[in-house]
Amino acid sequence: MDNENTKLNGKFAACLNCIDGRVQLPVINWITSTYNIDFIDMITEPGMDGFLVDSESELKPLLDKLNIAIKVHDCEEIFIVAHEDCAANPVDFKTHAPNLKIASEKIKDVASKCKVICIYVYLNGNVIN
């Protein structure tokens, strides 16, 4: 049932993030304050950047979710997150950085109208892009 009183208006973005709870709030806070985003459609996988670049990964379920965010919430920005001390993708920043670049190219191929922004989160809450 569609109820006007329950609708929230605002700008949405999609975020392809790791499941790690330590990075959720820093990511949300950084995106909402840096890009003036009101709501984030968070799509998670363990070690998201590694998941996206792994040729063995089944991307269709993730891309289906991303497609909903783009079509239903008019997301124009898609964020891809890697972070320090990731259990599922336990590599250093020098490896995360090219993973993010490859992941962003894959996402740009399927969401060409969206801006793809890669970010790296340190456990102290600092975010870089």
Measured as a percent range, the helix fraction is 40-55%
Tally the helices: what do you get?
4
Q: Give the distance, in angstroms, between the N- and C-terminal Cα atoms.
A: 40 Å
Superfamily (CATH H level) name: Carbonic anhydrase
Provide the CATH topology.
Answer: Beta-carbonic Anhydrase, Chain A
What is the count of β-strands? 5
Q: What string, H for helix and E for strand, traces the elements in order?
A: EHEHHEHEE
Strand content: 15-25%
Provide a compact summary of the structure.
With 129 residues, the protein is α/β, with parallel strands linked by helices. It has helices at 21-34, 48-53, 60-73, 93-110, and strands spanning 12-17, 39-44, 77-83, 115-121, 127-128.
What does this structure look like?
It is globular, with a radius of gyration of 14 Å. The chain starts with 11 loop residues before the first strand and ends with a strand. It has 129 residues and is an alpha/beta fold. The chain has four helices and five strands. The longest helix has 18 residues, at 93-110. The chain has one domain: Carbonic anhydrase (Beta-carbonic Anhydrase, Chain A, 3-Layer(aba) Sandwich), CATH 3.40.1050.10. The chain has a five-stranded mixed beta sheet. Residues 1-6 have low confidence and may be disordered. It has helices spanning 21-34, 48-53, 60-73, 93-110, and strands at residues 12-17, 39-44, 77-83, 115-121, 127-128.
